[in-house]
Amino acid sequence: MVFLTENKKKGFIGRSLDTIERVGNKLPHPVTLFALFAVLVIIFSWFFSTLGVTVEHPTQEGEILVVTNLLSAEGINYIFTSMVGNFTGFAPLGTVLVTMLGIGIAERSGLISGALRALVMSVPNQLITAALVFGGIMSSMAADAGYVVLTPLGAVLFAGLGRHPLAGLAAAFAGVSAGFSANLLLTSLDPLLGSLTQHAAEMYDPVYAETINYAMNYYFMIVSVFILTIVGTFVTDKIVEPRLGNYEGGITEKVEGLTSLEKKGLKGALVAFIITIAALALLIVPTWGPLRGPEGEIINSPFFASLVPVILIMFFVPGFVYGRITKSIKGDKDVAEQLSDTMATMGAYIVLAFAAGQFVAYFNETNLGMIMAVQGAEFLETTGFTGIPLILTFIVVAGFINLFIGSASAKWAIMAPVFVPMMMGLGYSPELTQLAYRIADSTTNVISPLMPYFAIVIAFAQKYDKKIGIGTLISTMLPYSIAFSIVWVIMLIVWLTLGIDLGPGSPILYTR
């Protein structure tokens, strides 16, 4: 047997996944989806305005929130005059583009690919599974590079060791995709989601929103890296690989080692990274550090408000040094071209940001988000459905939505304006709500056939067996999704029980 083949008679899970794929494929493109949502907000604003729907603002005593009608003369005026500002003011737009400048240099110079290869090739054979999972989790610092570098590399490594290549592919895919939110470093995902969370929190409590920083989930995600590495290794070695059986495909490959120039480049990049960290530390560690707060405080200091340029520098400098040593960067023209190429890949995101910016701005202007949040929180309070059951339900809902809409930012742009204020009304911090969302979004990536890189992973697997399809890959990845979900939920419950901060100055509970 080369690979497990899909059963002709599909069970409940198989039929459910087929339905998800069929329905998801019929959904409009995310850009179209946001445009439709923006139109619906305009229509709903007229409808609920004529009904006279109002609520009392939860944090500003005596203030009554009414629905602003965007089909009124003033509303139409707002739609036309705010369109450009809604786009340029869309919270994640600038943060994502700036961070991608640094990450783009690190990726296109070859640093990210070289570092991942060095990681998985430098460990003993008995630790290769753990290295693949760990490398996959850490690859999120380079956005989507792990999908195209580490996933096929995992299959090649396992095949070369006489192990089942699909098990290696699955281990790497689990780390890259199911563990996407975890990392030892701050990645582009942190400011991307954090800016949306902060913007949503401003609707409910502008003063509290100012205290939110992009590292709000950092402590939790650091611990998650090691826990998920252990869990991913266990699932691969004890569940997935035994289920696949012996590989008899006859394809064995040898991974090409790093060249002497690449090794020299990695050493240079490491030195550059250490020097960069030391230089940045001078801005925050000493009491006179210019990025400390007014009274020498670190939490809620200018440093945490400057994490986007910090991430840019941390990736740019080592990437540039690596490129110079390996000759992938010969001069300033190469730097400019690599930066331009990186921005060229962001075209789809910029278009999405335009449509999403209109939707989010309309949602805020009409007060529909706040009204839904206040009324939703009041309803949940009357039912007594709060605490851990509420958090778990939110994770399930967000995970289910992820099966149909793959983009993490697109989903959060829709969900944050409603759920962040709602959870604040129930006493839970925006930081906690974002963390619950990140858990749901990551763990279900590997079983979502609509995830953008799902088809690419199948193509990598078909190199070893042309019969493999969506059902085979999903059945292989399902144990990872379940195990990561269970472990992450247990971690979250422990955090909730002990009241540990989720990140620097990021509490679990919200207090006015």
Automatic annotation (TrEMBL):
Molecular function in Gene Ontology: secondary active p-aminobenzoyl-glutamate transmembrane transporter activity
InterPro entries hit by this protein: AbgT (IPR004697)
Superkingdom classification of source: Bacteria
Name of a matching Pfam family: ABG_transport
Keywords: Membrane, Transmembrane, Transmembrane helix
GO biological process, one term: p-aminobenzoyl-glutamate transmembrane transport
Transmembrane segments: 31-48, 87-106, 118-139, 145-162, 169-186, 218-236, 269-291, 303-322, 343-363, 383-405, 412-430, 442-461, 473-498
Keyword Cell membrane among UniProt keywords: no
Record protein name field: Aminobenzoyl-glutamate transporter
